[in-house]
Write a structure and sequence with these properties.
Structural class: alpha+beta
Radius of gyration: 17 Å
CATH topology: mRNA Triphosphatase Cet1, Chain A
Number of domains: 1
Strand content: 35-45%
CATH superfamily: VTC, catalytic tunnel domain
Helix content: 10-25%
CATH architecture: Alpha-Beta Barrel
Distance between the termini: 33 Å
Shape: globular
Number of helices: 5
């Protein structure tokens, strides 16, 4: 996936209601969700010394995270992803894997020969870096897009942390620990080369810009 800008803001429920109403008038709901809404559950990996976490907390400009993601706790698709951040620029590489393959990712003896090419590259990188399950991050995402202008606006609510048990990727009955107050929403503004004027106007005068990731927030509350 090409690099794109990704700006995050913490907003309250009042701001959320106003901005969402504006977005609904000019953007389209994400076609993959139920009217743009999906439950997203991600199992994040890190090494034994928490390199990904510490690089984020220390403000290292370029840092990489690996994760496995499910949507609405479904068995398909299961996405293996590597996300690289360079300031507000992000680059994501993803591959579809089977639920059974998740346990292989942190198994030093696992045979990846049955993986597809993209998954093989990511899994091999993870093994070389000693990546193991660290935590699960779950939230409800409402997403709007304008494909012709390569931009998205997302709202993440009910952000919570769970232990790094891969089974929780497929079980929405297991509750987690809230990482943010329930009335606090993470808004993400995503765009390609430049933000369209209407998108800037939608998000104008929003809340505090967020530099800490949901992964770091959830690690803090769980540990």
């Amino acid at each position: 996936m090409p690099s794109r800008h990704e700006e995050k803001f913490l907003i309250d429920y009042r701001e959320y209601a106003v901005i969402r109403s504006r977005a609904e008038a000019v953007m389209f709901p994400d076609p993959h969700g139920d009217n743009g809404s999906q439950l997203i559950t991600s199992l994040y990996f890190d090494d034994r010394t928490d390199t990904a976490l510490l690089e984020k907390l220390d403000g290292i400009r370029v840092h990489t995270k690996y994760r496995v993601r499910t949507y609405d706790c479904g068995l398909s698709p299961v996405q293996l992803e590597r996300k690289v951040k360079r300031g507000i620029m992000t680059e994501k590489h993803s591959a579809t894997i089977t639920p059974e393959a998740i346990g292989m990712l942190s198994d030093a003896q696992a045979d990846f020969t049955e993986f597809g090419k993209k998954a093989l590259i990511l899994a091999t990188e993870m093994r070389a870096k000693g990546q193991v399950p660290a935590i699960i991050v779950r939230y409800r995402r409402d997403a709007f897009e304008f494909p012709e202008m390569d931009c998205r606006l997302t709202f993440d609510t009910c952000v919570e942390a769970l232990s790094g048990n891969a089974e929780y990727l497929f079980d929405d009955s297991v509750g987690g620990i809230p990482a943010l107050p329930r009335q606090t929403i993470v808004m993400e503004v995503k765009y390609g080369d430049r933000a369209p004027a209407f998108l800037r106007k939608l998000a104008a005068n929003s809340g505090m810009q967020l530099s800490v990731s949901k992964y770091a927030l959830c690690r803090e509350v769980l540990h």
